[in-house]
Specification:
The chain has helices at 5-36, 39-45, 61-71, 129-139, 151-174, 178-181, 191-205, 207-221, 223-233, 259-267, 330-343, 348-376, 387-420, 424-446, 448-475, 487-516, and strands at 78-82, 91-96, 107-113, 119-124, 145-146, 149-150, 274-281, 289-295, 307-312, 317-321. By secondary structure, it is α+β, with helices and mostly antiparallel strands. The protein has three domains: 1-46 and 127-241 and 347-360, no CATH class; 47-126, no CATH class; 377-530, no CATH class. Helix 1 (5-36) packs across helix 12 and helix 7 runs antiparallel to helix 12 (348-376).
Length: 530
């Protein structure tokens, strides 16, 4: 296919600058996003066996609710029943904070029955390690709020819009040579040519994934504006979402149907789904709602591991649902499909692993794009590189590699923090941002070349420290940390070992490039790396 050279130059410039502007925050979003595919596994890995309360039979839940509310009246404001006991108590509620966003000061009370049928409860400070990773995925770690939305969400929404422009312009720019170069990794040419071929191949082969992610992030970031526009332009004075009038009853827990009855109501529109949880909210008000989390790996789900059925407990009516067909019709299911495509909540475990790999490939795409930009602007005639090139190289290393090291450090220190620190979740934040900004400072003070090698070597150590903690816990059981004791825990630590091997290879190759690479480059230094 032949495209005029002036048009190609325009699309090349558009691709380069939109990619550079959005690339580094999207690197964090993609890398952290790949880890969120196993958010439940991370939560289970962070739960000590000593905190696990015994599961109970389904018919015992009504008695559990009655006894828990009688002893702890605050529970009546809202609580959650869990039927999948991998890492959660049968009943739990927040005594401080809530489950919305990143809750650093949350205090949860959990309840169950002992072997004699007596109520047992305990207070737990839930780890937000998985929520921290999710926050990085949604905001790239950018603090602040605009209205009721996080600033970082809007930043990633804008970055995703630029990212979509980069995708379109990149495809157009590649069209003339697409077939010829798609699977050609020219290692016998210059290193920049190899990186270019790898960048193009990853981008084209994962193109549908990147289009889906860019568009869904834009929708997530600006959904309020989209809803307002639809309400005023399409629906006029008619509300976009409506609820039936609340029933005229006394809003007390005694009037709420039994757990089995509520499950049967949910099953009327989700007969093939497994019920994982039931969240009771606002029970003493007309806004009383029970959110039933249901799971079916053979369908596209609204949440990462759930679809939802919302029930008005006093009228026993289904208020809304993310299932197909939903009571609201095609609109709610369309929104749910957007979420499912973004979360990868279809295809079961295989689907999650595919999204994990695609997320890592997406992070590589942005990192390699920055490397190509730096190489294109390299001064080949002298050792002194332009200031903007040196600063971009330092930012690329500090932000991209620094964010990975900071996340790895959070995992490596997580069990020690939980065992020996009261302010568990604040400590997670301190570890992440201390390591991240230390990497940024190192990259600017020592230069991109030396810092890249140091950070990659530290990544090897921190990734290996994650399974090493389990070995230490087995050898020294008197310590308060605990080993991996389930299949998902072991798989998580095996992934850490695989990542450590990859980082070791990258560190070795980077150190070789620093010493033996082409002269007059930001990636070459005469300083010792020992």
């Amino acid at each position: 296919m032949k495209v005029r050279s002036d048009i190609l130059r325009i699309y090349q410039s558009l691709h380069i600058w939109t990619g550079i502007i959005s690339g580094m925050v999207l690197f964090i979003g993609f890398y952290a996003g790949s880890l969120t595919m196993f958010k439940d596994a991370i939560n289970q890995w962070m739960t000590p066996p000593s905190e696990a309360l015994a599961p109970i039979a389904t018919h015992q839940y009504d008695d559990l609710i009655a006894q828990a509310v009688a002893q702890y009246p605050d529970a009546e404001k809202g609580f959650t029943l869990n039927f999948d006991h991998a890492d959660k108590a049968p009943m739990e509620w927040f005594e401080q904070g809530s489950d919305r966003e990143l809750n650093l000061a949350g205090v949860v009370r959990q309840a169950s029955f002992d072997q004699d049928g007596q109520l047992v409860s305990q207070v737990a400070e839930p780890s937000v390690l998985a929520d921290l990773v999710d926050m990085l995925h949604r905001t790239a770690g950018i603090f602040g709020e605009v209205g009721h939305e996080e600033l970082g969400v809007y930043v990633l929404g804008i970055a995703s819009f630029l990212y979509f422009l980069a995708i379109v312009s990149g495809v157009i720019f590649l069209l003339p040579t697409l077939v010829k170069t798609l699977f050609s990794l020219r290692q016998n040419k210059t290193s920049s040519r190899f990186w270019l071929d790898a960048h193009n191949a990853v981008g084209i082969l994962s193109l549908p994934f990147h289009i889906v992610i860019s568009l869904t992030v834009i929708v997530f970031a600006f959904h309020d504006q989209l809803y307002d526009g639809l309400e005023h332009i399409v629906y006029g004075e008619q509300p976009l979402f409506t609820r039936p009038a609340p029933p005229k009853v006394e809003y007390t827990l005694e009037n709420v149907p039994s757990v089995a009855e509520l499950q049967n109501i949910a099953k009327t529109i989700a007969p093939e789904h497994q019920i994982l949880s039931m969240n009771y909210g606002n029970l003493t008000t007309p806004r009383a709602t029970i959110r039933v989390g249901v799971f079916d790996e053979n369908s596209t789900m609204r949440g990462p591991v759930h679809d939802y059925v919302f029930i008005q407990p006093y009228s026993q009516q289904i208020l809304s649902s993310t299932l197909n067909p939903a009571p609201e019709g095609v609109w709610v299911r369309t929104v749910a499909t957007f979420f499912a495509l973004h979360f990868g909540s279809y295809g079961g475990e295989l689907g999650r692993w595919v999204y994990f790999v695609l997320g890592i490939m997406g992070a590589f795409l942005f990192y390699s794009g920055n490397l190509l930009w730096l190489e294109k602007r390299r001064n080949k005639k002298g050792p002194e590189q332009a200031r903007n090139v040196r600063w971009m190289a330092s930012a690329t290393v500090g932000i991209c590699l620094g964010s990975m090291l900071a996340v790895a450090a959070c995992f490596a220190s997580a069990k020690w923090i939980k065992a020996y620190t009261d302010a568990l979740n604040y400590a997670h934040m301190w570890v992440y941002y201390a390591v991240f900004f230390a990497c940024m400072l190192s990259a600017y003070l020592q230069g991109a070349a030396k810092s890249a090698v140091i950070i990659l070597r530290l990544l090897v150590i921190t990734c290996l420290a994650i399974p090493a903690n389990s070995v230490i816990a087995l050898m020294l059981p008197s310590l308060a940390i605990w080993p991996a004791d389930s299949l998902s825990d072991i798989v998580l630590e095996l992934v850490a070992i695989v990542l450590a091997a990859l980082f070791y290879y990258f560190a070795k190759q980077t150190a070789k490039r620093v010493k033996q690479g082409e002269e007059n480059s930001v990636w070459v230094t005469k300083q010792s790396l020992a």
